[in-house]
Write a structure and sequence with these properties.
The structure is a homodimer of 175-residue chains.
Chain A: H1 7-15, H2 21-30, H3 40-52, E1 56-60, E2 69-73, H4 75-86, E3 92-96, H5 97-103, H6 110-134, H7 144-174
Antiparallel strand pairs in A: 1-2
Chain A binds a DNA duplex (28 and 28 nucleotides) through residues 4-6, 20-23, 37-42, 44-45, 62-69.
Chain lengths: 175, 175
DNA sequence: TAGTGCATGTAATGCGTTACATGATTTC
DNA sequence: GAAATCATGTAACGCATTACATGCACTA
């Protein structure tokens, strides 16, 4: 089985006892999507591939007359997941339109260019609010590394807000 | 003309007097690719679309017998670029495999999980070295906002390195 | 004169999202 | 009984990369 980008999110979440495709999507959207998004169009086909490979197992678990499929990770799946975890690459891809704007902002009058820095700051401040709202008093009970990834989101947004404020001040001083 | 993701990189760089597709690719690879990548397969078709739209103009400027096309931005192009710059969205997409690993690292013995944090740190430290090498003593002469984007790259990597070190210490204390 | 760099371009492929179709169950 | 939620799935589309084809010019 040739792993793709979505393989590890799906396998990893099944290993965390997230058992249906629908649930996987829901959990992704409240957690890893900030650094690793996944859509139905990837999740459902991937569940099939993982089952064929023997990394997960399961099947029909209908809820009343409603179709439903529950999967669990197998021993082979656990091994595959651990092997991937041992990989040490740091693949990092970013697509940040606001930064691209900043790069070309010399085409704008100074005051408007500074407005872009401010808009960036405000954008991250809003995401920060959303992230903090996710924390309904239960984050400390998460496993330590799940908690670490959550922290990263918060810390990163805080850093961006502070960076924008610092740069805005610096550029104002110079002008 | 319906703008796509690559429209603004290409139009922006032409406005910075980067005139051929080949040069655009080269400049992208040493600058914006950290937050906005672009490949030949996008750049050349986009140059044609931009020309048809009247946002850039130019044509054959062969170098000896070698085919070559130089473009310049038009007044309409400058207007389109400024209009885009005024947009205030903060589109931000990240794909960070090392963070995904961290999220699932509870499946590993503690020492190995901490190794992932260290590997992340080292990865960013390496990028930092590469970014600093880009600075051949000439970065201060860049226009202020080009310089700002460059700074962002450096500052972000420094923050990541520091964040990893902080978290590693914190997790060691707790264990 | 061989190797590297300049230069343009496209076809194949893969990745990912969006939008839709379908239908049961739970909640108000 | 209407609306929201649970649940599975796929087809169409768009976005991006990779890899290749082509050929001239400069440099060692």
């Amino acid at each position: 089985m040739k792993p793709t980008a979505v393989t590890w999110v799906v396998l990893g979440l099944v290993s965390h006892d997230v058992r249906t495709g629908y649930d996987i999507k829901r959990v992704v959207d409240r957690s890893v999507r900030y650094f690793w998004a996944a859509s139905y169009g990837q999740i459902y086909p991937e569940l099939k591939r993982l089952e064929e490979a023997g990394w997960i197992a399961g099947g029909g678990a209908p809820h009343g007359g409603r179709e439903r499929r529950e999967y669990r990770i197998t021993a082979a799946g656990r091994k595959a997941l651990r092997d991937w975890l041992h990989g040490h690459e740091v693949r990092h891809e970013l697509r940040d339109e606001s930064l691209l704007r900043l790069f070309f902002a010399d085409a704008l009058p100074r005051a408007e260019a500074l407005g872009l820095v401010r808009a960036r700051r405000d954008g991250f401040a809003r995401v920060l609010t959303a992230l903090r709202a996710l924390d309904d008093g239960g984050r400390d009970r998460d496993p330590p590394f799940v908690n670490l990834a959550y922290r990263w989101g918060i810390d990163y947004c805080e850093w961006e807000v502070a960076w924008c404020e610092r740069q805005e001040r610096r550029l104002r001083r110079k002008a």
